[in-house]
UniProtKB/TrEMBL annotation:
The lineage of its organism: Bacteria, Pseudomonadati, Bacteroidota, Flavobacteriia, Flavobacteriales. The gene is hutI. GO terms for biological process: L-histidine catabolic process to glutamate and formamide. Keywords: Cytoplasm, Histidine metabolism, Hydrolase, Iron, Metal-binding, Zinc. Fe(3+) binds at residues 78, 80, 248, 322. Pfam families: Amidohydro_1. Zn(2+) binds at residues 78, 80, 248, 322. It comes from Formosa algae. Its main location: cytoplasm. InterPro entries: Amidohydro-rel, HutI, Metal-dep_hydrolase_composite, Metal_Hydrolase. One of its GO terms (cellular component) is cytoplasm. This is Imidazolonepropionase. Its cofactor is Zn(2+); Fe(3+). Residues 236-410 form the Amidohydrolase-related domain.
Amino acid sequence: MSILITNIKQLLQTRNHNVLKVSGKEMKDLPFIENAYLLIEHDTIVEFGKMEDMGDTIAEKTIDATNKVVLPAWCDSHTHLVYSGNRVQEFIDRINGLSYEEIANRGGGILNSAENLQNTTEDELYNQAINRLQNLMKLGTGAIEIKSGYGLSTEAELKILRVIKKIKHDYNILVKSTFLGAHANPKMYKDNKDGYIDDIINQMIPTIEKEQLANYIDVFCEKGYFSLEDTDKILAAGVKHGLTPKIHVNQFDALGGVALGVKHNALSVDHLEIMTPKDIEVLKGSRTMPVALPSCSYFLSIPYAPARAIIDAGLPLALASDYNPGTTPSGNMNFVVSTACIKMKMTPEEAINAATINGAYAMGISNMYGSITRGKKGNVIITEEIPSYNYLPYAFGDNNIDTVIIHGKVIE
Ligand SMILES: N=CN[C@@H](CCC(=O)O)C(=O)O
Ligand SMILES: [Zn+2]
C-alpha cells in the first residue's frame, strides 16, 4: 500500500539527516516545509518536498491535506498502560484533602493497583490495555513504551510483561517493554524489603532475560520506595542480564538518583519535578535523556519539571505521558504538549521536538521514528484544518486530529 499526502499546509519535523536527538537551543528549531507533499510506501517514508517538486508522483491512496498540518506521530516513552481497574476513589480522597503520600501510607496507591491486578486474569488485563492503546493510537501516539510494576510478585510481574509481549505481537505499533518490579515494596514483604529485592534480582530478572520479556529496567527511586543503594543494586543486576536502565527519579525528592542514572548510563531519567543545579550539571555530556511528565504534575498538583533550566543548560528534554491509574489517568500526548507550553514555558517547537524526536531517543528508536526523514517509519498525524502548528498546543483540550497513520496504515 502507498499513501500520498498532498497540499500539506505545513509538514513539520522534516530532517534530511538522521538526527537522533535535539538539545538546548536546537530544540527551538522545528524544520518545516510549506505547501508540501509526503509519500509513504508500505510502512516507510520514501519522499517528501514542496508541492511544486512533486512531479507525477502517484500512489494507491491520496489524501488531500489542504489547510492541514502534518507531523510525526507522538513517541510516548513512559507509560504504565497495562494496569487493572482505576483509582477513582483516591482521586476523590485527594480532593477531600488527603495527599498522595498519605493515601500510599494507608495501603492505597501502587499497592492498591497491585492487589487489583493480582486478581485479574491475563486475558482481562490484555483487554483493558488494548482498549487504552486503541484510543491512544487515534490520538496520535505512534510508538510507545510500557512498564510493568503493578504486579509486585514474580507471577504478576511476568503476567504484565507477557501481556505487553502479546500487544507487541498483535498491534501494528512499536512497543518497548520495561521491567519495573521495583515500583513499591509489596504487602507480603512489608518488613523485609531486602527479601523483595532478592526476588527481583534472583527470580524475576533471570526469567525476563530467558523469555526476552523486556528491553529496559526501571526503579522508583524515592523516599519510602527504593533508596539509592537499592536502585544501584537493582540496576546493576538488570544490566548484567541485558536490560538498559530508565529510571523514575526526583518526583518528590532530589536524592541523587539523576547522578546514579548517569553512572549506569541510563537511556533516560524520568519525572524530574524536583531538580537541584547539581542534577542538571551531571546530565551534561551524558547520553541520558531527561524526560518530563507534565500530566502527572497537573493531576497531582505537584511542581512541573523545570524545563527552561534544563533546556537553557544546553540539555535535551523529552515529554511523555506517564499514563497510569494513580498519578496520570490519561495518555493523551496532545494534552502533554499543550501543558508543557502552558505550564513549563516550552515553545511549541521545543514541545513538539520533545514529544517526537527526543521521545523516540528515550525509547532507543530515534533512528527509525520521531521525524519526517526518508527511510524512517511512515508514522504521521494529519490535523484538522488549523491556522498553523502553534494552534495545536494553544487549543488545549480540543482534538484537532483528522487522521493518524502508523507504519503506513490509516488508523480506523
Ligand atoms: N511514581 C511512580 N510511579 C507512577 C505512579 C504510581 C502510582 O501511583 O500508581 C508514576 O510514574 O507517576
Ligand atoms: Zn511512571
